[in-house]
UniProtKB/TrEMBL annotation:
It comes from Maribacter litoralis. One of its GO terms (molecular function) is racemase and epimerase activity, acting on carbohydrates and derivatives. Transmembrane segments: none annotated. This is L-rhamnose mutarotase. Pfam families: rhaM. It comes from the Bacteria.
Length: 111
């Protein structure tokens, strides 16, 4: 098995000051969050921004599981604290379910 890429989208509140704060938080992500990401078999994670739309590319190794990552995050107080803080800046993209943040995107083209 090989690594897989997963792409997600999420919006930020359309407020320049909040967007700048969000960027600053991501220049110094808490070590516990980095540890949580790496510990769940995520090999690489990049976040891009255009206007107020975020795009995340996550590369995982074959041991990664969305269910295990979600369960680990739910049981990690520091991750929950980070997610609560980030929700100050984030807003669901259209047609999201209540409480749904990062939305998994479907690949429609590959070269």
């Amino acid at each position: 098995m090989e690594n897989q890429k997963h792409c997600f989208a999420l919006d930020l509140k359309n407020d320049k000051a909040l967007i700048n704060e969000y960027i600053e938080h991501h220049k110094n992500v808490w070590p516990e969050i980095i540890e949580s990401i790496k510990g769940s078999h995520i090999e690489n994670l990049d976040i891009y921004l255009v206007e107020n739309r975020l795009f995340m590319i996550m590369e995982t190794n074959p041991l990664f599981s969305f269910d295990k990552k979600q369960q680990a995050d739910e049981n990690n107080a520091k991750v929950q604290e980070w997610e609560t803080l980030m929700w100050k800046y984030q807003q669901a993209i259209p047609n999201s379910k209540p409480g749904e943040k990062w939305r998994l995107m479907n690949k429609i083209f590959e070269l």
